Amino acid sequence: MKRKMHDKLKIWKEKANGESALLISGARRVGKSYIVEEFAKSEYKSYILIDFNLADEQVKALFEHDLNDLDTFFLKLSTFYNTKLYERKSLLIFDEVQLFPRARSAIKYLVADGRYDYIETGSLISIRKNVENILIPSEEDRIDMYPMDFEEFLWAIGDETMYPLIRSCYEKKKPLGQALHRKAMDLFRQYLIVGGMPQAVKAYAESRDFDKVDRAKRRILNLYRDDIRKHAANYAMKVEAIFDELPSQLKNQKNHFKLSSVEKGARFSGYRDAMFWLTDAMIVNNCYNSTEPNIGLNLNRDRTLLKCYMADTGLLISHSFDENGIVSEGIYKKLLLDKLEVNMGMVIENVVAQMLVASGHKLFFYANTDRENKENRMEIDFLISKSKVSNSHNISPIEVKSGKNYTYSSLNKFRKKYAKQTYISYLLHTADLKEENEILFLPLYMTELI
Prior knowledge:
By secondary structure, the protein is of the alpha/beta class. The protein has 2 domains: 5-145, P-loop containing nucleotide triphosphate hydrolases (Rossmann fold), CATH 3.40.50; 151-449, no CATH class. The chain is built from 18 helices and 13 strands. The chain has an 8-stranded mixed β-sheet with strand order 7-6-8-9-10-11-13-12. A 5-stranded parallel β-sheet has the order 2-3-4-1-5. Strand 10, helix 18 (409-417) and strand 11 (425-429) form a beta-alpha-beta unit. Helix 10 (178-194) packs across helix 15, helix 11 (198-207) runs antiparallel to helix 12 and helix 12 (210-231) crosses helix 15. The longest helix is centred in the middle third of the chain and has 22 residues, at 210-231. The protein is globular.
């Protein structure tokens, strides 16, 4: 399946020109290995893929004993894989590099040699766990890989025309019109419930069978649970407790994550490692409270007050409706038709968080619970910074609405109180694009373009 990561890899290859390796980190089953091998096939004369989950002990031994003689090292490696290597025209892929840290530490010497290019893939949780007593290479660039975004999803299901129209209308600030907006929202709901994990998208593209889609997602969720039990060390139970609590926490979307629902009397200090483990695993996207919206959102971040979204909304749906071990076809169809009798706010807010992260934004929100002055009392779902910082007007507040009837008093309060800091105010909703009262109302499917 076509991924935008391919273009990022081409840019890295051109800019690095052999002077650095590339580490691609991402959640399990997000498609790292697949895209790197496809890139190798199209952009290099030859490549060797070393999957350290399967690699022969003799291959691993090369990294232990032959790095002092790289001529011999490459000759043996080429022979093991029956692949001829060409100077500056071949790529070596270290897949699941976290399983063999010695290979990662060898990057320093391999890059300095300059003959070939190197890409590593791995899950950050295990990479960080397995770096003791090894030299972390400074000659290493890093790219994070996320689930497929809405445009990639459309490519996968064979629609090459809708997103260019969406992008054009966004740039011109014009609505799509009733018929095309309805079609775009239908496609967006398909993305919402299938999600962006490649196995689920592939199952949907090939079959349009929601049972197959849900089974694909269920396998990934089970894999995540296995990873938690295997890699989360002595706080695995806390990680799993937070993981299980995510759907119910998101239902109460106007509040931060409450650890008291996980364990009575729990404090953030006791769960810090567990929360950050899920972040490092890229299973969740954390959204932090910024106590003072200005140029440096991160400078005013309250690390103890956060919202916790699942990195893939399709997985969230399977995680939420799992009483019988699988989400029924009927529930999926009701979601598709927007007729499920539940509060869809948590799902919509989660997919907005997912799309903002995919387009390069860090997640922040703003909450003020002033009991004395109601004009200060507000909560803004998301805050994003302008890419080019100026002396003022750098912060864009974003409100997310899942229903047809809504108010936006918090957004108006924010614009009034922080007029000098506010750039563009967005309200994301299920209707078409419009500009009104100095607010840009965008359909949900335009989120990635902000």
